[in-house]
Hints:
Blueprint: H1 4-9, H2 14-25, H3 31-43, H4 46-74, H5 76-99, H6 107-116, H7 121-132, H8 140-168, H9 173-190, H10 214-243, H11 250-270, H12 277-291, H13 301-312, H14 316-329, H15 335-364, H16 366-369, H17 371-387
Helix pairs in contact: 2-7, 2-9, 3-4, 3-8, 3-9, 4-5, 4-6, 4-15, 5-6, 5-9, 7-8, 7-15, 8-9, 8-11, 8-14, 10-11, 10-14, 10-15, 10-17, 11-13, 12-14, 12-17
Subcellular location: Cell membrane
InterPro entries: MFS (IPR011701), MFS_dom (IPR020846), MFS_trans_sf (IPR036259)
Pfam families: MFS_1
Amino acid sequence: MANPYRELLAVPGTRTFVAAGFVGRMSMSMVGIAIVLLVSAVTGSYGIAGAVSATLSLAYAVGAPLSARFADRHGQRRVLVPLALANASSFATLITFTLLRLPTWTLFPMAALAGLTQPSLGAWVRARWKYALRDAPARLHTAFSFESVVDEMIFVCGPMIVTAVATGVHPAAGLAVAASFTLVGCLALAAQRGTEPPPVPRVAGAPTSVLRNPAILVMAPVFLMLGAVFGAIDVSGIAFAEEKGHKVLAGLLLGCYALGSGSAALWYGARRWRSPLGRRFRIGLILLAAGLVPPLLITNLYLMMFVVFFSGLAISPTIIPGYGLVEQSVPGHQLTEGLALVSTTVGLGVALGASSAGRVVDAYGARAAFWLPLGAALIAAGIGLAGTRKNK
């Protein structure tokens, strides 16, 4: 039996851009934690650390779609090289200012600059997949499934790496390693000219912003709510493990959730689907919401690990067709920008969900906080079902 993933990686040039993208994207699961660990260690304040990290996240949400727009218009290499160098310089300055104990306010513009220059590299890699598979578009869903598995690996490995380095070597080492991943990955990706999508000039009379695209107006809030699901699950899961007296197992609990999603992504990408993307997306949203009901009923930590694995099974079969709908609906000259925009809304949703769940945990406990991801999933399903009805 043919292995679709082996066939996918046999396409010339794909293995090298996948490797570069993996390295460059590692930082997306690391920089927030790294900033909190560094700034809190120097200032003694988690409040300041969280504010600096939030500043970077907000700036990233603004900057990533803009840099992706320039990449669509001028080519990835011309944008990626100066962007990566500016990003590395910004992180180096942020580390320096923190270690020198300069006034707290100086950390915020540096965090903002680092966020503005942080590319949403997953979108850039997915755009390369579309170009590499331009003669076999039916295989694109397998490529997007593979990228979802890569994302899950990053979010499992990244936090463990940055925490180990920042606590075992030096508080600044975590952020330095995260920034190095971005720099090396971006430069390696930029060096691969053979798989770089050609620049697509803006079409005369076409909307200048991808936000005017009707599909993006639907998908952006859906992905925002999906991000809120992930952020709320993370905080609720950690708090649940701590309440049960096993905080050390919190990472394993969240890993079970990610493992469910990664397993489903492999299964999803290996199948040849006949049903339309829109229908698959809507079914995924419904199953994702349904899968978040059982955690509300569980009181045992080990049983919770079993349950959240099955809750995670619906994530990738929802995210993957979601990206597919964006790819189908956004014109070529805005593809990377559109993919980057929905990716950054996930990040914003994670921040929203995590902060909201933290407040609920403080006030009512971990079990009450599990209502938040269910509520966010129901909102996502409502928007998605209403907004994609034309996609049969």
